[in-house]
Design brief:
Elements (H helix, E strand, L loop, with lengths): L2 H7 L6 H28 E2 L20 H26 L13 H8 L7 E3 L5 H6 L9 H4 L8 H4 L10 H16 L5 E6 L6 H12 L4 E7 L2 E2 L2 E2 L11 H5 L3 E5 L3 H16 L5 E6 L18 H8 L3 H12 L4 H23 L19 H22 L1
Parallel strand pairs: 1-7, 2-3, 3-4, 4-8, 7-8
Antiparallel strand pairs: 5-6
Helix pairs in contact: 3-4, 3-13, 3-14, 4-11, 8-9
Length: 396
Amino acid sequence: MTVESTAARKTTRGGGKRATAKKAAPAKKKAVAAAPAEAERDQLVQLLTPEGERVEHPEYSIDLSDEELRGLYRDMVLTRRFDAEATTLQRQGELGLWASLLGQEAAQIGSGRALRDDDYVFPTYREHGVAWCRGVDPTNLLGMFRGVNNGGWDPNSNNFHLYTIVIGSQTLHATGYAMGVQKDGADSAVIAYFGDGASSQGDVAESFTFSAVYNAPVVFFCQNNQWAISEPTEKQTRVPLYQRARGYGFPGVRVDGNDVLACLAVTRAALERARSGEGPMLIEAFTYRMGAHTTSDDPTRYRRDEEREAWEAKDPILRLRTYLLNEGFADQAYFDSVEEESEALGKRVREVVRAMPDPDNMAIFENIYADGHALVDEERAQFAAYQASFVDAEEN
């Protein structure tokens, strides 16, 4: 059974005055705290409700063909199927680690499909859906996690940078690249992905400062999945994440991260804004990590099942599927064909990963310095002699 069919199945389921002042103070504090929460809900950009109903937004709109809508659904289902297969492969000992995107498909596919070919992407290590949109073969994502390469693809082939494990550093890379794009006079934009936990990193703050001061054509896309490993969002910020942009001098917007249409519309507008010379923008995709942070994590130790179940009801794939069915944009035959395709993808991923060759032991010394380096040459020779000693021992 595929993850797509799993999503489909979920459709079934002292003194008087002084004492008075002291008692009144907590009530007053609660009243003040309630107002921002209501404002937060009002600020959420949404075009497709959790029930699969199409709604309009005064600032962001989108008009897609039936084929484009079906394509978004296919993207999300296949990405989820690939992700599930990668998780299984790790559990079977075929991968060293895996960071699942389960629940974040809409944020990634929506923003990924908003990009033009000449735009450049700087991901973290969970943007499997964005990689799919950029044409990176899914099996190429797994080489690093299997330990057979240090990346797996040429970043310039798809304008999709290598995965970044160092938290938040890719936002600096994106900002610098965007400043270069600006100086070259190119008509393109840059997008940097990061999580709610990474928003606390100094690198992200520095990126915000430089991009604002230099009016760089970069979009910061924060996938707020509620948990930075085991730390909740309230341990990262006292205000909604998108409001942080205001302090740096550029706009921020919060979008329903489980609404693929809203993510597409908002990201498309932000990218066009950047291309037209209006500078950076922060998008906070309000979503949820339905699985573990990585396969080495146990989310049951720090969050309740009720919380996960509440977000499962907002499943991005189920939401779009309901809309397609209700509007007659897709039928059961189409869904069956996507499920069949997803099974074929899972099989291919299994076969390719298990057949990946061991890396060349000497490859680690390549592509470090453009013109070579004496110390690296010395280390290469030492390592080669070390490897040769094993061969000599076997022969003797």
